[in-house]
Every structure is written in C-alpha cells, then in structure tokens.
C-alpha cells in the first residue's frame, strides 16, 4: 500500500489532468481540421458498434397491415396462436357464431404465448396500442374532433441462431397451418363498410353470411343457370391459364333486369356454391379514390365484391359529352376540396387496370335495374365478362318455387292452367314467392295464384311477344337488336322516352 508520503499532491494531480485535457482538445481540433465530417461520423458509429453489448435475441414485428393491404402473416399468426394458449395466460377473448363449430379464442393485449418448434422456443406477444387522431373525413359541422384507433401487432422473439429456421420453416409452417384451419372451419362472411372504426377512412366489418339461397332453390332459367355454374367452375380451375395469358385472375358479372327477379339471391347462391365471402361495397359512403383503393385491396382472395344498383348508387363522373357542364362543375368543386373526389376511372382502374392484379380468384358483380343507364366504359369486354339478364318468372321457375314452398308434385291439375297464363304475364319470382306464402293449403294457394294471373292479364300487364326470357351467354352475341334502336330527334319528351324504354323491355330486347 502506498503511504501518504508516496501519494501525489492534489496540485500535481490537477496539473496532470489539465495537461491531458489540453492534449485531447488539441487532438480533437487537429482531427476536425484534417478528417472530413462524413468520415468522422463513420468512425464514431463504428466505435459505438464495437463497444455496444451484443443482444442474443432477435424480435420480429408483425403488424396487422402493411401500408394499405392486410398482412397475411398477422392473420395466420392470430389463427395459429389461438391453438397455443396455455394455463399461464390470464386474459383471453372468447367468441362463437351460430355456424361455427367451436369457440374462437384470441389473445388479449399484452398476453404472451410460448410455442416450441423443432427443439427451439419461440415467444409471442400481442401488442395493441390505442391513439386518438383527427378524423380527415369529418368535413361536416359535427362536433367530433377525433376518433380512437387501434394499431395491432405481434412480437415474435427468439435466439439469433434460429433466424434461418424462422424464415425458412417456422413462418411458412404457421401460414400453412392457418390455411388448413380456415378451410376446416370455413364460415362464409358478409363484409360491409364501417365508417367509424379507423381515423384513416372507412374499413370493412363483417358478420356471418347465413343466406340460404342455392342454385337448387333459385327460380332461374335452367339453361342460364347451368351456364352460370359452368362458368364459375371453369373460372376457379384456370389459375395457370390466367397466369399464362397475362391476365388478373378475376371474373366480372353484370346482373340486370327488373326489380324482384332474383339478382341478390343469385349472388348468395354463387357465394354458397363457391364458398366465397361477400364484400358489399356501398359507393355512397366513399368520397375519395384513395379510400376506394384501400378498401378494394383489403378484400380477401376467394371473395365476391358486390356493387348493387350501380346506376343509382352514386353519381360518378362519366364520359358523355352531354354532361360536360356537370363535369366542369365537379372539377371546380374538387379544386376547393381536392380530397373529395370519387371518379369512375378510379373504379375502372381496379376492375381491369394495374390495381386489378392485387389479389387472386376474385369475382366482381354489378347489379342494375336499368342497363341502358350505365356508362359504356363499364360494359366493354374485359370488365364485365358475363352479362346475365334476370328475367320475369317462367313456367319452369314457377314449378321450382311451387315445389320449394308447397311441396306439390309436378303433375298438379292446376299446373296446366298456370302454364297457359304465366308465359304471357310479367310477374317476378319475388311476386310468385309472395303469393305462394299466403296459405299453407296448396290447393287454396294455387287457386289464388291463378286468380292473380287472370287479374294481371285483364289489367294488360302482359308481354307483347311472350315472356322476357333470359338467354344463355353463348346466344347473347347472336341476339338481334332489330326494333330496339331509338331514333333521336327534336320534340321527344321524357315521358315518351320512358314509355319507349318500357316497350323495349317488354319485347325482350337488350341494351
């Protein structure tokens, strides 16, 4: 040990410190003068990296969405981890819908799960962060300044040495396992818009699709029904074909015809036939093309996107020269509020433009009661691949409805009289179904239906050239349009135009 005599005096210690400090300042000044700033920054970062303690654990962040599209890994992890809960978990979310086979278990925020895989342990943690942000869609004078949003993600932590295993084996295993679980417990969903969920705009919300309509119960022309089913079967089997020819794997349908002819029932039958979810898009709730893109990209594969009553759901800017003044006015309004603009081109770009390739095995269905009102840009080949005319009820359709509702045999005595009347009457399947539900007695119900047909015939509610039947798709291109062209001239009133359109529909002409 040093004796007090051998210890340096405070003045010598201070002198040495001052000398060392001066030397360091001199070296620092020389370094600043001789070494450029980028090199000095690089050296400092390298020095910090060398002295920083190395972590032996790697953490992957799996967020719910990646930009404007959902994260497939997040959805797979959410489903997979529901089967890996343990007694150590203290808070879990439990739910069950009527059609689901068993309880659905989800992690509550902050909960952790340990999952062993090939001798390694992987630790999961569910993160749910809440925040309040201003609502950019609140353009009205409403006293709502902000809305609450949630940002959800999973944290996956594991030793660094298992990085290759996680990327090459573990995560692909979770994706495949989640797909198997989804196929085994498939419950069809009806997705609709929720405008209050997220601050960044509208978002999809879902309920179980429990519509019982099938092709077996659908009152539709048999030949047209078989053509639709064959077209659907061909579509789902042609993934390689679409890829080979360079087209997005999607199919477009236009359902048109009078109200009550079964357009919505056909959509439900198609969903039940293919086991596809339905996304019901109401264009009236969307104000910008950017919101429309986010919604369409958030739709899942193997789904049906439905836009009902496209001719009257929203006044989209079209390309008719007769509406130039309306378009100019919309452009002036758009300059005042540049974010408030939903255009027809934005919708068409997703149907068959560059955005159409963002997703596989999708069906897009438009419905309308007035096909002649649609913009020609919607009807051109490549957008609506198949036009399906939902017509008035035929005799074959009536027999199917009678069998479903009354369970009557096909040789019922009243069927002959009904066949002679219904072929000349404009009556929709919805009207027929309503009549067949009025009485549980089959004979009384059919007699009442005969009276209805006779009354409609006396009132003149008949077809001039027979029923307005729908033709199979292979005959649509051969359909002649003689007598269906409207002459343009001066002095034609709106009333005459409507009358001419009604007459054309009665003659079975397409537009």
Automatic annotation (TrEMBL):
Pfam families: AAA, AAA_assoc, AAA_lid_At3g28540. This is AAA+ ATPase domain-containing protein. The lineage of its organism: Eukaryota, Viridiplantae, Streptophyta, Embryophyta, Tracheophyta. Residues 249-394 form the AAA+ ATPase domain. Its cofactor is Mg(2+). It catalyses: ATP + H2O = ADP + phosphate + H(+). The keyword Zinc-finger does not apply. GO terms for biological process: response to stress. GO terms for molecular function: ATP binding; ATP hydrolysis activity. The keyword Magnesium applies. Keywords: ATP-binding, Hydrolase, Magnesium, Nucleotide-binding. Residues 476-488, 501-511 have a biased composition (Basic residues). PANTHER family: BCS1 AAA-TYPE ATPASE. Gene3D superfamilies: 6.10.280.40, P-loop containing nucleotide triphosphate hydrolases (3.40.50.300). CDD domains: RecA-like_BCS1. InterPro entries: AAA+_ATPase, AAA_N_dom, At3g28540-like_C, ATPase_AAA_core, ATPase_AAA_CS, Mitochondrial_chaperone_BCS1, P-loop_NTPase. Belongs to the AAA ATPase family. BCS1 subfamily. Residues 461-511 are annotated as: Disordered.
